[in-house]
RNA sequence: GCAGGUGUGGCGGAACUGGCAGACGCGUACGGUUCAGAACCGUAUGGACUCUUUGUCCUUGGAGGUUCAAAUCCUCCCAUCUGCACCA
């Protein structure tokens, strides 16, 4: 009967956690930068009482890599902090009926305790919390820098509003009822017509409304091209890069200008398919376009009808106007534009399916080549013309044409574009239009400017002051500004400068967020701070008249757009980051996080870094050269959420099975980047492995291992080393299990083998590994700063090799040959032929062909 | 509709540049240990046929194809997940 070691994991784990913290083994020296490894993990928002198993899953994935790197000799910096400002923690505080500050002073320490109990190697001396004054004063500084650089501006725009929660909602909080898991309801109690198409508030399921409000925005669109180009320089998953590419949505097109008949005016449309322009039969403009450009040209007999239409469209929300499958509406303006290509007269219509902020707000109608234009033409009985290029080597367009053909239409054959495919025809047409001065190539983007202001309480107050008297006398901050570096590589568009008359940045940061009782949003289009004159009543820094401080706070994504810059400099008080430390430790070496941040956070952080680079604050412009996107941990087939009641608290499992068993289980579930389901039975199995593993170290120690164990040991070192580098944690653990199984079969193991085995498991089970390393094997503390094992190539080499024998491609047996004979084709063929089970299939026939892959396979083709 | 991903036993998943499909684990069954249970140890475990063994055939969402050889490469479908979407 084997003697079993009694392993009190709770006690042992706590012991080592305290020792690691005391000895600061996870705190690197920031003045030394050679061999540094900045291992960043996406910090959580503490909008719950504590961590759920998903956090445990992803943070362990990050920690395993950090531990591996440390044992590979890197100086690893692995910080942890909290994204504690913003709507999520605020909503949670509202729910618990507390002040956000009170709630966080309870939850953040709990989060920290939980992270510590998982045994992660964080440098807790460099932790940060975005709602700390010491942090957010620099978030405000960042806003001021943006404003000074001309990258922050104000604009009246349509925003989402929940009439029940009385608050403005971010886009990401507006979803279909199915996504929100709610029954849709309207505020006045009337029935909801199309439940699948309506957009509701994530929290209460009320149908959202649209409101026009003044907002602060950042000119991220100025950086669209650089954000796109930068993607080719960074090592990110293709999936995430594609998401960013699509979000930026760069499209090459052309602005074509047509003259308006009987008017000394032109109309400009944007299109990506000018090659179809021979088929243009009408023009459609957005309602806003008419207001801005065409109102005076419209004859009095038509103007009433047009005005009515515009008014009713503008009452509709953008979502409503764009709702899928909605029947086209529109009104003829009485105006005509002339198509220079063929002299055709094109009636100008107004319709709400055309958006002012896409392209020029005017679209050329080519119903023979565009589904939407076709629907419009059918509805209002406009002619349909198809352009045939006399070529059939572009299938997709031919299909589109023939679909329309079934209905009706005139066909024109374009000799001009004869024989060209879409791409060639587009280029030829663009060249032609530009040569004649009718068009100008323009690149368009899907990316919109970043809406930075929130009419909420829990965020950094936007550090701006508005002075009415300065605004009246048109005093702009920019007219007297000199601090923008002359070398900034981005050309700043100042066309919106008039917006800034009377606005000044705060000179004395921070603008402290006052603690107020009435912090809940009222939904009047203003933040709760707007009810606090003691906050907003200030003196104008310019003219010393009474002025008003901005009462909006900034978006939580601004807090998280620069936190990685702060970590190494936590404790530095006069600067957001120390120049020397930053030069040594940034950019990050690995960013480990969830794919749900593919566009928002990751795009914003890249943008902010590029701006700071242009402002000469940083030497690099990509903050995350390597990104790993982990998968999702689900429970019973669906995402863990409080409303579903399937949230797993890791504490219970740590208590019952130990942190090491939980870590191993989470990493063994499946590939790190896949969606995995948490199951209780699985972790019980892992606890059995942990116990078996412990017992392996107390097996009889021999002087020499059997050749089988030696070979397997070195193979496992090779496999685990390679797999860890590629985040293949599940197969690393499986390989280690195989090794343990073989050792246990043998019943004894050398001390050296024990040391190698415990090192292999150390990144996954750091406490067990330390305990074994120090107290069972008697080595000096700590295993986590010891060197990763190397394997011996010679030990892996097999003396004999098994070669698969196939006949006609089917497995018919194996032959074992000496390693020296592996490349000897004739010898292997003879051995195979002599094998009984193979010979049966060869039937003494002569092989037509023999495929020989040395060391792997021999295939007789006899057919 | 567009873009990207995924599909392998009862389950989670292995399979490096095409070379013995199902590693490792869970679950299940039987046996051992036990007063009994838990835990532990051992054996078996894709399906069908044969059945004393040896063994044969089928099998990686479906249908074709390339190849001596396909889970892997190509074409077309199907299912499913995630973004974006009347974006001109």
Give structural notes.
The chain is of the alpha/beta class and 863 residues long. It is 37% helix and 19% strand. A hairpin with a 5-residue loop joins strand 10 and strand 11. Helix 23 crosses helix 25 (729-746). The longest helix has 19 residues, at 53-71. The radius of gyration is 34 Å and the shape is globular. The structure holds one RNA strand of 88 nucleotides.
Measured between the Cα atoms of the first and last residue, the distance is 58 Å
Q: How would the global form be characterised?
A: globular
Cα gyration radius (Å): 34 Å
Describe the main β-sheet briefly. Answer: 7 strands, mixed
Q: Low-confidence runs (pLDDT<50, min 5 residues)? A: 1-6, 391-407, 482-486
Number of strands: 36
Give the overall pLDDT as a whole number.
85
Structural class: alpha/beta
Proportion of residues in helical segments: 25-40%
- Strand proportion, as a percent range, falls in 15-25%
- Tally of individual helices: 30
Explain briefly what this protein structure is.
With 863 residues, this protein is α/β, with parallel strands linked by helices. The chain starts with 8 loop residues before the first helix and ends with a strand.
Describe the protein's topology.
Elements: H1 9-23, E1 36-41, H2 53-71, E2 75-77, E3 81-82, H3 87-96, H4 100-117, E4 128-129, H5 133-148, E5 152-162, E6 167-169, E7 174-175, H6 177-180, E8 200-201, E9 209-218, H7 224-230, H8 238-248, E10 251-260, E11 266-271, E12 282-285, H9 287-294, H10 300-315, H11 318-321, E13 331-339, E14 344-350, E15 362-365, H12 371-380, E16 385-388, H13 395-405, E17 410-413, H14 422-435, E18 439-444, E19 450-451, E20 453-454, E21 464-466, H15 468-472, E22 503-505, H16 533-536, E23 537-539, E24 546-549, E25 553-554, H17 556-559, H18 563-566, H19 579-585, E26 590-594, H20 600-614, E27 627-630, E28 633-635, E29 638-639, H21 650-657, H22 659-668, E30 676-677, H23 680-697, E31 700-702, H24 707-725, H25 729-746, E32 748-750, H26 751-761, H27 766-776, H28 793-796, E33 800-807, E34 810-818, H29 825-834, H30 836-842, E35 849-853, E36 857-861
Parallel strand pairs: 1-2, 1-26, 3-4, 12-14, 16-17, 26-27, 28-30, 31-32, 33-36
Antiparallel strand pairs: 5-6, 5-9, 7-8, 9-19, 10-11, 10-13, 10-18, 12-15, 13-14, 20-25, 21-22, 21-24, 23-24, 28-29, 33-34, 35-36
The structure holds one RNA strand of 88 nucleotides.
